[in-house]
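Pipeline run #58 for the internal structure catalog. This entry was flagged by the ingest filter as a single-chain record with no existing model, so it goes straight to prediction. Upstream metadata was stripped on purpose; only the residue string is passed forward. Reviewer on rotation: M.T. Logging verbosity set to normal.
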Amino acid sequence: MSQWLLKKFDDFSNDVIVVDGLWGSGKQLVSTLVGGFDRVEHFKYNPDYDYLCAVSYLGSMNNNATVTLLQLIAGRNQYYNLIGREVNLRWRDETGPRFHPTPFKFVSRLFSKDGEGIAKKIDEQNISNNITTHCIYPIATPIVDAFGDRLKFIEVIRHPLHLVTHWSRFLEPSRWRRVREINLTVDCNGYKVPWFASSWAEKFAKAKTFDQALMSVDFLCNWMIDVVQSEQYTGSNFHFIQFEKLVLDPATELRLLGKFLGRPQTKGMKKIMRQNAIPRKNIADGPKMGQNYRWTALEKDEKVYTEAMTMIHREGSADLVTAFTKTIKRYNSIWRGPLAEFE
């Protein structure tokens, strides 16, 4: 083992924006909107950031190695972004040109020059990374250590009730055990368990799929709230966005987001909002369905909330449902969003 610590010398000084949240929380929407601010890259999901934070938390890698790799990967990604080495040309992908505010400029990078001038441009113009991560807010220490004052960490939160449906579908064996499924997991006697459930892996492995979803959302929401209340990750480097408030009143949330980032919106923001169907009358109205509902916003959201709660009581084990309803109350006591009135 080397006696010398790893170190990234001569690092970039540009902002590093990280958009994090639980699976199904609306990170993709927020990441796309973040890309509509001045001198911010179009968002990119690189699971390496998730992996590194998780393996560090699990004790499989020391903090020095984790921090150094995060710095190397972030710098490499940003330089490759600017010279077009990692331009995604897939038309259906949200990270591709179709959903970029200036698609021709984005694609033109394929023909751009490389070199030290690009690296200087990143720092001189403070062109920010736009990184999307999953479920790492409670274990963000390596991210904080790696980027320091450069870090702009955005945590997207969504009412836990609406996360359970998404999680129960995702954890179905036909999806969870796909070869192309790339989340970090642990081996519990041959059973695939997500990394965050490592401390209760046997309980996860023995549970039915819906209960796995309930336990996971319940655990992660409470873990996140515990960290928030401990004030471990707060201050000027951290910002919270409620998905429900964002889609109903994007003007207010985007103004607060711009203040946090210290950047104005670009003209492309209107295109991004239009593509994502915001503002919405109903929280659940996605880009392809917003005009097809006849209910008012209150009736629609209340109907969705009631149906989701009914499903949880029908499908979940009684003890887990009881614990989950307590988590909803705890969540609402901190982030009293539009759905809190239906509790």
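catalog note: The chain has a mean pLDDT of 92.
catalog note: The first helix runs from residue 27 to 34.
status: ready for reviewer M.T.
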